[in-house]
Amino acid sequence: MTDLVMVLNGPNLNLLGTREPEIYGATTLDDIAAMLHDQGQALGITVDCRQSNHEGHLIDWLHEAGARKALAVILNAGAYTHTSIALRDAIRAVSVPVIEVHLSNPAAREAFRHVSHVSPVAAGVIQGFGAGGYALALDAAARMRQGKN
Ligand code: CA2
Fold first, then answer.
1. CA of 30 to the centre of ligand 1 (A)
2. 7, 51, 70, 133: most buried by Cβ count inside 10 Å?
């Protein structure tokens, strides 16, 4: 059985590549999913990419990652990063390492983006590298499997 990595994307990320390319880039979420599937194939990892605008869906999917004993979750929780204690609790509740990803660098943006409720319970954070950050995160998951991190 191959290892599973779930890639969970939060609110408004379905708009990726269609608006605000100066902040979030021109790559769509479908492009990112295709890139990660190819990368996963080379690494022997099944990649399951999802997006929802609803906080509860993200929480249900974190629980699912726990039940499926996923190798890791790559999570871009969008603006819920800065607001959701429920997401933080869900990450704590499952014993799956969560790699927090942001396309932009929230630390270099408005003050309200400087707080992340995800970071304190994440295995690590990759931010500011655009769509390539997801590839770095998948690589980090694969390295974790090999005990290299
Ligand atoms: O940089 C990131 O990945 C963020 O998680 C993106 C969130 C933002 O609230 C976080 O502070 C940082 C916003 C996602 C909105 O996505 C859009 C994509 C294209 C057009 C409009 C919004």
1. 16
2. 7
**Cα distance between residue 68 and residue 65, in whole Å:** 5
Task: Give the tokens for residue 98.
Answer: 């969560």
* CA nearest to 136, candidates 147, 127, 123, 146: 127
Q: How far is the CA of 2 from the centre of ligand 1 (A)?
A: 31
The answer to whether residues 42 and 84 touch, using CB atoms and an 8 Å cutoff, is no
Each residue's pLDDT tens digit, 80-129 = 999 999 999 999 999 999 999 999 999 999 999 999 999 999 999 999 99
DSSP 98: E
Pairing of strands 72-76, 45-51: unpaired
